[in-house]
Write the structure tokens for this entry.
Amino acid sequence: MDVGFIGLGNMGLPMARNILKAGHRLRVYNRTKSRAEPLQQEGATLVNSPAEASTGDVVITMLANDQAVEETVFGDEGVLTALKKGAAHISMSTITVALSERLKEVHAEAGQTYISAPVFGRPDAAAAAKLFVVAAGEKKAVERFQPLFDAVGQRTFFLSENAPEANLVKLSGNFLIAAMIECLGETAALMRKYDVDPRRFLEIMTETLFAAPVYRTYGALIADEKYEPAGFKLELGLKDIRSILAAAEAKSVPMPVGSVIRDHFLSAIARGGAHLDWSALAKVSAEDAGLKS
Amino acid sequence: MDVGFIGLGNMGLPMARNILKAGHRLRVYNRTKSRAEPLQQEGATLVNSPAEASTGDVVITMLANDQAVEETVFGDEGVLTALKKGAAHISMSTITVALSERLKEVHAEAGQTYISAPVFGRPDAAAAAKLFVVAAGEKKAVERFQPLFDAVGQRTFFLSENAPEANLVKLSGNFLIAAMIECLGETAALMRKYDVDPRRFLEIMTETLFAAPVYRTYGALIADEKYEPAGFKLELGLKDIRSILAAAEAKSVPMPVGSVIRDHFLSAIARGGAHLDWSALAKVSAEDAGLKS
Amino acid sequence: MDVGFIGLGNMGLPMARNILKAGHRLRVYNRTKSRAEPLQQEGATLVNSPAEASTGDVVITMLANDQAVEETVFGDEGVLTALKKGAAHISMSTITVALSERLKEVHAEAGQTYISAPVFGRPDAAAAAKLFVVAAGEKKAVERFQPLFDAVGQRTFFLSENAPEANLVKLSGNFLIAAMIECLGETAALMRKYDVDPRRFLEIMTETLFAAPVYRTYGALIADEKYEPAGFKLELGLKDIRSILAAAEAKSVPMPVGSVIRDHFLSAIARGGAHLDWSALAKVSAEDAGLKS
Amino acid sequence: MDVGFIGLGNMGLPMARNILKAGHRLRVYNRTKSRAEPLQQEGATLVNSPAEASTGDVVITMLANDQAVEETVFGDEGVLTALKKGAAHISMSTITVALSERLKEVHAEAGQTYISAPVFGRPDAAAAAKLFVVAAGEKKAVERFQPLFDAVGQRTFFLSENAPEANLVKLSGNFLIAAMIECLGETAALMRKYDVDPRRFLEIMTETLFAAPVYRTYGALIADEKYEPAGFKLELGLKDIRSILAAAEAKSVPMPVGSVIRDHFLSAIARGGAHLDWSALAKVSAEDAGLKS
């Protein structure tokens, strides 16, 4: 396939590489050009604008936030003007439901295909092509691009024909992770105040009821208070919680645990933790219990 | 071993039966005698008081709450007066840390052994001898009674020599389950308001990041809104949250997600749901989002 | 003075009338023209655009929300292009701190004066010229327009030279009112469950520690469950809470009571209460306690 | 009247003195005897037990918490055994609704009169005989002891014949004060982060909508961050919030703002603030916003 790829961050770079490895023609664009050079050596074509990346069958965006996607799609030399009728934009970033709804609308008006296909997994899973892809949009289109999803992920879940639903699921998944971090943080603080080793508690939990990878990963980070380097920055965690709360507000759904998490993210940032891994939410619980960290 | 067993509820009855099956001599006591009769036919001896159940090597209590344990241990014809020096009381109920500390103290004064060994698992796991046992107390004593733990559970975690720590771990585990229920409930309400099937969302979550049995069990109950019959009653869930918040308060640890859950349990009960399964916490999120249930 | 007035809603109409009565020349603009007609009979000039309202010494905006102010100021035939150098825009609506910062900037660039002067008080206070005005902006300019503030209010508080601070104070004041409503609602529910008349409780409070007009006003509405007609609509209350939480988030300040209130506003709206007075926040507390309302 | 008075703390001592000044015969008891000596010089009789203080027409208890009242009433040489049939126990302390219900019951069984008459006001108001008394119990009895209430307070509110309701009202009033402190603290932190002087904000609020003494008093303490000496200790504030939450739980009433306050009290205590004035709740908001204090 003739694929454009925009956004070569911690997640985007390994994803683009895996698509290239799978044998597709790849045009890549990144605002900071130097990030793209390794891929050039591996066979990708570097282009100078989102528009130039959008002249093939499909263009994938994997960017940091709504604003970056908006500039890339709606800006001069953006995706929207360059994409051919019938060609597709696959948005794989974690963006808001509201922006996804807007993309759905404008691409439809332009006779283009829009697929929302956000992914679950941290950078190591991206490198290993072990991401989970949640895809929504016209079913035939999703099937047509299955080879691309197979190139980056271990499994694809087709959700529905309504693209923004994939963003709702992605944000809700991130909410569940953040909530798990918050709750592990609250119990870890409690254990410490009782002189019980939080490692032991988490070990028991993850070998019994909560034998899920995500509990093991975050449980260990919290028990060891190892918040650097950040696999996923706390300030990005706040962005995602803000996005899910906005999606919930749009339908008048209160999410009180979401509100607690949002407040703790703000506290963590106010105390200087924006750059830490989002598991550092647990620091707030520790400090609120009077523990030094 | 010569074992006494007090408390033949949904959990206690299958546990006692499994101990009997494992070949131990069993004396059973239950306030409502008829509950004990099936065990008599299987070879157990029915006795008329906690004291009579406490004349052997060890007596196990598996009761509904602190008050029942207090009456059983401290009452006339209670465990405390009857238990021989060197014999053991194994408390397997979910009781407060404060009561466990008191039991530790009084048994020590009386020259008796006290082991705290609460279990994780619902009645079906109890029947299948698949419980997880978290044991704390004098290590040698815990080892000595390992055959009893093996009779009821699939695995025993020895925690520490300080018995009440096992209660802290048990209550914290229940807090994590309640928090998971609350968060699944919040996302399920959100999905419904967006006309996304919560089943599909939960399916994706439990086949990817949250591939833990407890997510599958409760995810299904919530997605299907199947809150009866209760595996674990909502009012007992409130009791456990109250207990963990009390343990946290004793060490000045705020647990804001715990507070949210407590408030939602109260709401669920105020609206007539005390007898439902504690997964009905999700009803509160649904109703707060204006959904009919 | 030669005054333009834009926005003749429940608050704007009586304010404009009081300015007219005080002897100023008044040009009025309202999107729905019929709202302006009574003022025409009383001597005001009706104009056809925000621009036409902005040709004098000063133009006042008193609009429903940020969007209305943005359209009025930045739109074609908007305030910004029409206002003369040295002339002033006085924004009296409850808008966000972020929009106020933007207005400060664009008016400064255009050589125009910008004053932020939001008001406290409900429609009856506006009619009686008994509003409280909180003004911020260049001090000399505020002094120059004091006659206008005197025409609508009983007292003006000059805050600082930094106009957006007045919006911060206004939104924080509304937060305190909403929090008071929430807390009175929680206690009223409690009283009802104990068969104590909430009126009696509120009477005692407002004749002793809380002898403030705002407690009396809202206390009576809540005790009588009289949520219609709305003096200030619940959906506008949510808008203000959202604005204060956004201002707080911009500086990484958690406001957990603000979060509770936001969640309850959402619940009230989800259950069909958007059009009620914002004191209907108390209905959520009542329903969460299982009370019929 | 022949009056016994038990409990000569910061509140009890000036109250007892005012009763003495009003011309009543006074028998006083305090666990720490030296506290009672000044009153002896002013004409009171010192006695050696609660029982000896309870031989007249009426005995008043004004003690720190439930436990002190329980020991005083139910202990050996306690009030209960000594009080004559027809004589009265007036409980003026801030105790739980549950204990008040128990006192109501036991005094009725003993043929004694029980009046619950907690007070609002800090020690300076007690000294100036300016307390507010909220009285509940048999109406004739309350009328009979009106001279005592007049001796200590500026006004008495008769609530109902059901004594524990006065405790519910007292605790709810303290909840409203704590909530006000919390909200003023949240806004003060916000103001500081925007470089707005919280004093100015609070000045505007208390001269307009919130012109109540309690807002002025606590607003000033918070704006000045003056948390010592304590007029009412933070750890006592936690006790009262715990009591109101317990009363609410007994009737299945969630009070989410109460939960937020409870968690913040715990945080304040965890960080070493138990001895500060309860207005130091605002320190938690400041620290959670990253402000040094």
Summary: The longest strand of chain B covers residues 153-158.
